[in-house]
């Protein structure tokens, strides 16, 4: 996972919303969909995909990838 997910806010007064979306279904289903967004983040396309899984009876945990990984330094090789 991205280290940015576990970093603490530098200012204790500001609380960052986790880059995770939870979509629950009312049905009991043992299958859970783990969805990682692309570069566009939790946009309408991703929201529609999540909603389609919920309509089929699956709960969804979606990671908003750009928000989660925006502070990760990449080294040049």
Protein model, in words:
The chain is of the alpha+beta class and 77 residues long. The chain has helices at residues 44-55, 65-69; strands at residues 20-23, 32-36, 59-63. The chain has a 3-stranded mixed sheet, with helices on one face. It is elongated and about 45 Å long.
Please sum up the structure shown.
This protein has 77 residues and is α+β, with helices and mostly antiparallel strands.
- Helix and strand sequence: EEHEH
Question: What is the mean pLDDT?
Answer: 79
Give the radius of gyration.
15 Å
Provide the helix percentage. Answer: 10-25%
Number of helices: 2
Strand order of the largest sheet: 1-3-2
For the biggest sheet, the summary is: 3 strands, mixed
Poorly predicted ranges (pLDDT <50, ≥5 residues)? 8-14
* Helix/strand/pairing category: alpha+beta
Shape: elongated
Extended strand count: 3
Distance between the terminal alpha carbons, to the nearest Å? Answer: 21 Å
Instruction: Tell me the strand percentage band.
Output: 15-25%
Ordered list of secondary-structure elements with their pairings:
Elements: E1 20-23, E2 32-36, H1 44-55, E3 59-63, H2 65-69
Parallel strand pairs: 2-3
Antiparallel strand pairs: 1-3
Task: Based on the model shown, name its key terms.
77 residues, alpha+beta, 3-stranded mixed β-sheet
């Amino acid at each position: 996972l991205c280290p940015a997910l576990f970093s603490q806010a530098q200012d204790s007064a500001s609380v960052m919303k986790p880059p995770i979306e939870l979509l629950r279904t009312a049905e009991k289903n043992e299958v859970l969909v783990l969805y990682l967004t692309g570069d566009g983040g939790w946009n309408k396309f991703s929201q529609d995909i999540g909603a389609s899984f919920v309509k089929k009876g699956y709960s969804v945990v979606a990671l908003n990838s750009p928000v989660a990984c925006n502070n990760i330094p990449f080294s040049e090789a």
